């Protein structure tokens, strides 16, 4: 007997394909975006390049969250996008998948903090705060942020929050409003 | 010919097991060791020199920027730190490429389903989406062209761009999922499989030993 999983908690093959297709679109967007990133990243301004662009790299996660409204959607959405990116080719290699996981956790914590009840402004705000803090801690080790001096760190943290706040917060909110207006939302 | 290559599931375990440790290791020499071992494995798998060179060049801006930023903004032993983080970029790169350059995507996913129990919903869902890669690329261009024809240009920060993407993803994923179900795909159901691969016990052992050796050198010996 064939079964189609329509429950809200479980993952159906339709959800997976949906997120993977969005992940591939993001892969294309990343390629366009990466020219700007590389131009800046090849200079001592590389940490700035990281933090200014970070919001774009991680927006697949919260977008998956507000579109599917499921426990784990942000984490799996971000992980899928990272896996797609790694398989399509990424100059970060193995770090892509690991960072995707960390970024997804950050977003997921924000939605979890609302008890998975708020997928609107509050959920998104907490999700951006969660991912800003978690990814910053991660970069402390992975990208050696512990070696930079205090002034730079403060600037980087603020830039990171603005980038994540805009792309993964405000922009995702605008997108979800458009989706709801068009009657496609769940 | 395929028998002496490592199984994709084992490569993923090595990649994550060592990749996670790299983040906390502070050694230039262990990074170089990973690059050399990874490069040897790529050459053993007869990956073209041209492809490897492109890969090395593509990561160069990031490695250079890492190195330079520590020289410019670092606080302690800037030269050592600069070399650690620049070589780390390449360690990650080669660690990823031993999986992504040597095994086709389909085999990676089917091997993960068989040996690491990744759910078939994810395996076949991702596979279905990957079959659309070239169409998705075309569709992205169409979305932008059609917007230009209406006199609007989509930038990365326009929500309209993403709405179009979401509409396409919704339609295509619905169609594909329906097609798969009508062809007999049952979520969570038992399936017969035509995918076969070799995963001898020594490969599990090898992944375990490599991860331990890496741990020993990076956190106990701690070379330069």
UniProtKB/TrEMBL annotation, chain A:
InterPro entries, sorted: ABC_thiamin-permease_prd
Q: Where are the transmembrane segments?
A: 16-36, 80-102, 122-141, 153-176
| The keyword Transferase is assigned to this record | no
| Protein name as annotated | ABC transporter permease
Asked if the keyword Repeat belongs to this entry, the reply reads no
Q: What is the source species?
A: Liquorilactobacillus cacaonum DSM 21116
Pfam families cross-referenced by the UniProt entry:
ABC_cobalt (PF09819)
Q: Which UniProt keywords apply?
A: Membrane, Transmembrane, Transmembrane helix
UniProtKB/TrEMBL annotation, chain B:
TM segment ranges: 12-43, 49-71, 83-103, 115-133, 201-221
Q: Does the keyword Transmembrane apply?
A: yes
Q: Which UniProt keywords apply?
A: Membrane, Transmembrane, Transmembrane helix
According to its UniProt record, where is this protein located?
Membrane
InterPro entries with a match to the protein in the record: ABC/ECF_trnsptr_transmembrane (IPR003339)
| Example of a GO cellular component annotation carried by this entry | plasma membrane
| UniProt keyword Transmembrane helix, yes or no | yes
| Topology class, membrane | Multi-pass membrane protein
- Superkingdom, according to UniProt? Bacteria
Q: What is this protein called?
A: ABC transporter permease
């Amino acid at each position: 007997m064939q079964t189609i999983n329509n429950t809200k908690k479980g993952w159906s093959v339709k959800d997976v394909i949906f997120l993977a297709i969005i992940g591939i679109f993001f892969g294309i967007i990343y390629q366009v975006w990466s020219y700007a990133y590389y131009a800046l990243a090849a200079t001592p301004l590389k940490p700035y390049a990281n933090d200014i662009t970070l919001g774009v790299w991680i927006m697949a996660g919260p977008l998956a969250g507000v579109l599917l409204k499921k426990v784990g959607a942000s984490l799996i959405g971000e992980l899928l996008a990272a896996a797609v990116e790694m398989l399509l080719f990424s100059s970060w290699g193995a770090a892509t998948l690991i960072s995707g996981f960390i970024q997804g956790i950050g977003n997921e914590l924000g939605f979890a903090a609302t008890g998975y009840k708020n997928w609107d402004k509050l959920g998104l705000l907490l999700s951006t705060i969660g991912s800003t803090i978690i990814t910053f801690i991660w970069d402390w080790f992975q990208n050696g942020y512990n070696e930079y001096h205090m002034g730079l760190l403060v600037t980087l943290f603020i830039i990171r929050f603005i980038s994540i706040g805009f792309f993964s917060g405000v922009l995702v909110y605008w997108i979800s409003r458009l989706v709801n207006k068009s009657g496609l939302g769940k | 010919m395929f028998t002496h290559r490592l199984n994709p599931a084992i490569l993923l375990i090595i990649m994550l097991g060592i990749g996670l440790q790299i983040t906390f290791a502070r050694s230039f020499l262990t990074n170089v060791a990973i690059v050399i071992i990874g490069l040897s494995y790529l050459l053993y798998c007869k990956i073209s020199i041209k492809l490897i060179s492109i890969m090395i060049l593509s990561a160069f801006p990031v490695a250079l920027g890492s190195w330079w930023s520590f020289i410019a903004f670092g606080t302690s032993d800037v030269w050592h730190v600069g070399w650690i983080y620049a070589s780390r970029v390449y360690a990650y790169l080669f660690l990823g490429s031993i999986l992504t350059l040597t095994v086709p995507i389909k085999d990676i996913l089917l091997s993960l389903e068989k040996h690491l129990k990744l759910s078939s919903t994810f395996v076949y869902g991702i596979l279905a989406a990957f079959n659309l890669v070239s169409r998705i690329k075309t569709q992205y261009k169409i979305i932008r062209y059609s917007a230009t024809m209406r006199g609007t240009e989509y930038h990365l920060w326009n929500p309209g761009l993403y709405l179009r993407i979401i509409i396409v993803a919704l339609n295509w994923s619905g169609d594909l999922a329906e097609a798969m179900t009508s062809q007999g795909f049952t979520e969570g159901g038992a399936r017969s499989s035509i995918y076969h691969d070799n995963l001898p016990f020594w490969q599990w052992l090898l992944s375990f030993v490599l991860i331990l050796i890496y741990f020993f050198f990076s956190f106990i010996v701690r070379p330069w």
